[in-house]
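Tokens for chain A. Residues wanted.
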């Protein structure tokens, strides 16, 4: 995948390929002042955590995906606990676009899972892993990894398994070598499962599924990483279809951004799709290890996250409703029987992740491509 950042080009509100509406729903801010907020997770104590991709910094810099990107240790994890917002992990790697329409859009911590006082995070990359060797390589080699962080007073963190190195060596979809660790599922039962949005695949990391195993890992370099599934891309047979749009090829990538597990034990994976990000072109796949992915429900647009709700329904977060690229706000769609779709949120500007809280309410990170204006909102019916 070559175009895999979160970018919004306009802010007109429409709904696409859904039935029902959520005109009465409101989005109430509960966390504010965030930098490129992405993944959300609740701790066992009810605290809400958000991974922020940060705002880059003063450099070093290099050109990635045709734009100048500058590094800074500005990625972090913030917590909302008993109405108080605070940073609990700081200094995580981040780079951000310097100028142009995408200025301020950052790559860094994308998603997180919380177990007790420890978090597992995906640290994105979004390019050929070989470019991490650009001097000073000690800076750029921080990207494309898992990271483990302590959610205590010192907020200590360390890099873990090198996901992008695995993609460079294995290249499971046989396409252009590209890696962007993104969506994350981590539990004692399932270990660590993640999507590589650049590699168009679903991966498993052996070990690291609980605090003891994660702490036992030194740097993750020798950990066992394996491919669970590959999703249709330009390089697969059959390839992932694009749409009729002058200037773009008829095929695109899957760009899997999110993974959750169903009551049936199968994995469910949502895809953003690649450029030109056509409306109605994204699928939710059902994945049983050892079998090819099957389409669980199609007709979505730019899926950025998904989760199961307390009502047993699947909730899908659309980053934008199209019609192409990211021209309009996104929303949350509840998937019912027969792949029926109902919008359950107001229009949301550049949403990044969703999670249900212990109160049964839905929480969504928004303005996920912006510095300083990111928020987490509660969806109130």
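Reply:
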């Amino acid at each position: 995948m070559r175009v895999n950042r979160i970018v919004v080009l306009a802010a007109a509100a429409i709904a696409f390929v859904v039935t029902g509406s959520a005109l009465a729903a409101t989005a109430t801010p509960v966390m504010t002042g965030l930098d490129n907020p992405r993944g959300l997770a609740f701790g066992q104590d009810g605290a809400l955590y958000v991974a922020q991709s940060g705002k880059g910094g003063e450099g070093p810099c290099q050109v990635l995906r045709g734009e100048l990107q500058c590094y800074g240790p500005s990625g972090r994890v913030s917590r909302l606990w008993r109405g108080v917002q605070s940073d609990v992990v700081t200094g995580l790697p981040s780079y951000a676009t310097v100028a142009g329409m995408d200025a301020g859009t950052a790559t860094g911590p994308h998603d997180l899972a919380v177990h007790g006082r420890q978090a597992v995070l995906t640290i994105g990359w979004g390019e050929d892993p070989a470019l991490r060797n650009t001097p000073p390589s000690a800076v750029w080699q921080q990207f494309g990894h898992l990271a483990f962080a302590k959610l205590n007073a010192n907020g200590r963190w360390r890099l873990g398994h090198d996901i992008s190195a695995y993609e460079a060596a294995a290249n499971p979809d046989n396409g252009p070598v590209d890696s962007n660790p993104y969506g994350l599922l981590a539990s004692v039962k399932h270990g660590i499962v993640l999507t590589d949005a650049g590699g168009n695949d679903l991966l498993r990391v052996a070990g690291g599924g609980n605090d003891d195993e994660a702490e036992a890992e030194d740097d993750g370099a020798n950990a066992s990483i394996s491919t669970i599934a590959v999703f249709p891309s330009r390089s697969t047979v059959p390839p992932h279809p694009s749409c009729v749009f002058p200037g773009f090829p008829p095929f695109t990538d899957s760009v899997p951004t999110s993974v959750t597990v169903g009551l049936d034990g199968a994995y469910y994976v949502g895809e953003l799709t690649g450029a030109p990000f056509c409306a109605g072109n994204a699928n939710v796949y059902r994945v049983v290890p050892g079998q090819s992915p099957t389409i669980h429900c199609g007709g979505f647009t730019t899926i950025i996250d998904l989760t199961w709700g307390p009502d047993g329904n699947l909730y899908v977060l659309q980053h934008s409703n199209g019609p192409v690229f990211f021209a309009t706000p996104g929303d949350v769609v509840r998937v019912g029987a027969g792949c029926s779709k109902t919008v359950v949120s107001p229009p949301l500007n550049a949403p990044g992740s969703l999670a249900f809280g212990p109160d049964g309410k839905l929480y969504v990170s928004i303005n996920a491509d912006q510095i300083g204006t990111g928020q987490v909102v509660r969806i109130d019916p």
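The domain at 26-380 is CATH 2.120.10.30 (Neuraminidase). Residues 148 and 158 are 6 Å apart (CA to CA).
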